[in-house]
Design goal:
The protein has 745 residues and is α+β, with helices and mostly antiparallel strands. Helices cover 48% and strands 8% of the residues. The longest helix has 34 residues, at 395-428. It is elongated, with a radius of gyration of 52 Å.
């Protein structure tokens, strides 16, 4: 046999099929590693050249098995024409001068598979169904039913193969008669009538083979009820022997060997499309609990894909929720690789569906459906379709989406959670349905209060907190209670100052709310927040006075630096010039004949106004320490000492007012409201006298006339009414025409 294998490998290498792209004409499969040998084939693993399908390749080497060429060719011919769920599925084949190739679905020989009692019973049913199809529908005889003729898929299902001796029913010179003697071990399992010449092969011939298979599967003890059926299949009289059809009917009777929950479920799924709505609903309702007892490999690789297909293409009617519950139950212990290959693609397609009944069922089972999917797949493929549920027109979909957000949040990552999901939940707090508002708040509270990656502090402060404060004024009492519960749960994550200034004042009115649950929730939230505030207060310093003084000193120093440089210095200098001008004006009025009582320094009330001076340049103030004025004489001396010599240049008060300065200053029409108030001094303080005192007439001031431009004639000049400017009228960078005294008017 080793020589055959070596020659086979060399042959495959010559045609380019081993371990690479196939060089066999009309055979788009690559032959891989050898896994077993079953007469007359060498069994190899293989893949399609496009990489989409895993297959098993049966290879027959002609030079080293010339006597079996007819049998291998017969198997290839029969495989191409037979299609049945219980027969090994043919995917491709080819024949060359050196070999015969048959590619089938990925299987392994029965003797290499793991044994499971439920799978053995279901396998016997599958083989019996295939034999019934071959005998009755195809009018053929298999003639080689045994353990070597059965193969097992990755899901644990049995497939009938070994078609080398298959021939038509009633053939006088059947292949099984001519070549049976060449098959290893065939004499021990050959039906008695084959040895008798002239007896035509019938369905009873395969009944004998089915009995041989049962005997090979149960070598010690058979299940209850199977022994009697086995005896009927082994009847030596072909006329009285049980056929495959008879075995199926007898084994499925109540209490029969094939009357189990697993076999019934498998049979129902195969024919679910022809069942009525009531039957489907009843079956799916109990499938979830029953699935826990089924063989895991079969449930995950056979039943699960069929259930997902059923949901996707509408075969579940209104039983989506029950079917998805079974899907979650079956897929609960699948590894990530298998889950990503079988379940994840279907879940992505299902979430994109517009069927509201299906979407509602998906949202109900979102936690179980998402557990085995990769986070990047959930974020990129599932979440965008999921988020549309927040704005769905159906309130049931919106509410189910809010509830499912708790399952979605850990899978989408912190970035999507804080930039999108939490905003959808906050918008749901303003939903028209009070139940949705309440559930949205509860969901927000769980996301904010839980540990680990979740809602960050920025989202909590600027997105969640305003929504909670708004919900505290909701007209629906459960919403207010939920907002209070969430506020209490989030209080320790908020800044204590914000809690004291913003949250506690908003919650306090609810301590006397009309609804008792709201009052209780408000009291609990207040207690938590007060404890948080007290903890923060204990960590604060005893006083902030020293810190405030230091801060003021630093600000004064900054102002001084600013005044020494740039435009800040100009602004301070301008303000000093303004004050100096005001003091100089008071001094000039005193020297021009005012009453002695007004010669002292007066603390003029806000809103009082001084007469403008005819000075051409603001005087400079001598910054001296403050001196207490005890007498008019001393006050006069102080005022005189602050008066600076006048210069001809600088700002001119008359520039803004035109040539008619006398009228502008009200010489012809004096206004008592411009007069200064006399004062006397009592106890070192200047007291304003009740007798009004008029200032000297401004006629004593000789105004400096400004030349009229050539383009302006005397006729065009008109008296200009005085403008009383406020402090804000002075503009930075203004010209020299601004009147510094006007800033105090």
């Amino acid at each position: 046999m080793s020589g055959l294998s070596s020659y086979l490998i060399s042959t495959l290498s010559r045609v380019g099929g081993l371990g690479g792209s196939s060089g066999i004409p009309d055979f788009p499969f690559a032959v891989g590693e050898k896994v077993a040998t079953v007469w007359p084939w060498s069994i190899h693993l293989g893949t399609s050249t496009d990489g989409k399908h895993d297959v098993t390749i049966f290879v027959f080497d002609k030079p080293h098995g010339a006597q079996y060429v007819a049998a291998a060719q017969n198997a290839l011919r029969r495989m191409r024409t037979l299609r049945h769920p219980g027969v090994l599925r043919y995917m491709g084949g080819a024949e060359t001068s050196d070999a015969i190739y048959i590619a089938t679905e990925r299987v392994v020989p029965l003797n290499l598979s793991d044994r499971n009692e439920e799978l053995v019973r279901w396998g016997l049913f599958r083989v019996a169904e295939a034999l019934r199809f071959v005998n009755e529908d195809c009018k053929l005889v298999h003639a080689n039913v045994c353990k070597e003729a059965v193969f097992v898929t990755s899901a644990g299902e049995w497939r009938l193969g070994g078609l080398e001796l298959m021939d038509a029913v009633g053939a006088e010179r059947g292949v099984y008669r001519e070549m049976g003697a060449m098959v290893p071990g065939y004499a021990g399992r050959m039906a008695p009538e084959i040895k008798v010449q002239g007896v035509q092969g019938t369905a009873a011939l395969d009944g004998w083979g089915l009995a041989s298979l049962i005997g090979e599967c149960y070598t010690t003890e058979m299940p209850v009820g199977l022994g009697a059926l086995h005896a009927q299949l082994r009847n030596t009289d072909p006329q009285r022997r049980m056929t495959a059809r008879g075995f199926i009917e007898a084994a499925q009777r109540s209490g029969g060997v094939l009357d189990t929950a697993f076999v019934r479920a498998c049979r129902f799924l195969e024919s679910v499309t022809v069942k009525d709505t009531h039957e489907r609903a009843q079956f799916f309702a109990g499938l979830g609990a029953a699935a826990a007892e089924f063989p895991r490999v079969f449930a995950q690789r056979k039943m699960l894909p069929e259930l997902l297909t059923l949901v996707e293409f509408g075969g579940a009617d209104n039983g989506h929720s029950a079917v998805l519950a079974s899907v979650v139950q079956i897929a609960s212990d699948m590894d990530e690789t298998e889950y990503s290959a079988v379940v994840a693609p279907a879940v992505v397609r299902l979430f994109a569906s517009t069927d509201r009944a299906l979407r509602f069922a998906l949202l109900e089972h979102a936690s179980g459906l998402l557990h085995g999917m990769r986070d990047d797949v959930v974020t990129s493929s599932v979440y965008p379709a999921f988020a549309t549920g927040f704005g769905d027109a159906a309130p049931a979909i919106r509410e189910a989406t809010v509830k499912a957000a708790l399952s979605m949040a850990p899978r989408v990552g912190a970035k999507t959670l804080n930039s999108d999901l939490i905003k959808h939940l906050v918008r749901s707090v303003a939903d028209a349905e009070p139940g949705i508002r309440t559930n949205s708040l509860i969901c927000i509270g769980k996301l904010c209060a839980k540990g680990g990656p979740g809602v960050n502090d920025t989202s909590l402060r600027y997105i969640v907190c305003p929504a909670l404060l708004h919900a505290l004024r909701d007209v629906f009492p459960p919403v207010r209670a939920a907002a209070l519960a969430v506020s209490g749960a989030c209080a320790m994550r908020w800044d204590a100052v914000d809690v004291a200034r913003r949250v506690v004042p908003a919650i306090s009115p609810l301590l006397v709310d009309g609804e008792r649950p709201v009052r209780v929730a408000a009291a609990k939230a207040i207690n938590v927040m007060v404890a948080h505030i007290e903890g923060h207060a204990r960590e604060m310093p005893e006083t902030v006075a020293k810190k405030t003084a230091d801060k003021v000193g630093a600000q004064a120093e900054a102002v001084a630096d600013l005044a020494a440089n740039g435009w800040g210095g100009w602004a301070v200098s301008s303000l000093s010039s303004t004050i100096s001008g005001a003091i100089s004006l008071a001094s000039s009025v005193s020297q021009s004949g005012a009453r002695p009582e007004s010669a002292g320094v007066q603390s003029e009330p806000s809103g009082s106004r001084s007469e403008p001076s005819g000075l051409s340049e603001p005087p400079q103030v001598s910054h001296r320490p403050a001196t207490t004025v005890n007498s008019p004489t001393a006050a006069s001396a102080i005022v005189q000492s602050t008066t600076a010599p006048q210069s001809a240049g600088g700002w001119e008060f008359n520039d803004d007012w035109g040539e008619d300065a006398a009228d502008a200053w009200g010489i012809d029409n004096d206004d008592d409201s411009w007069d200064a108030q006399p004062s006397n001094t009592t106890g070192g303080m200047t007291v304003v006298a009740s007798t009004p005192v008029k200032l000297a007439k401004p006629a004593a001031i000789t105004p400096v006339a400004k030349p009229v431009p050539k383009s302006v004639t005397k006729k065009d000049t008109k008296p200009v009414q005085p403008r009383r400017k406020g402090l804000g009228a002075m503009k930075l960078g203004g010209g020299a025409k601004s009147n510094p005294v006007d800033q105090f008017l």
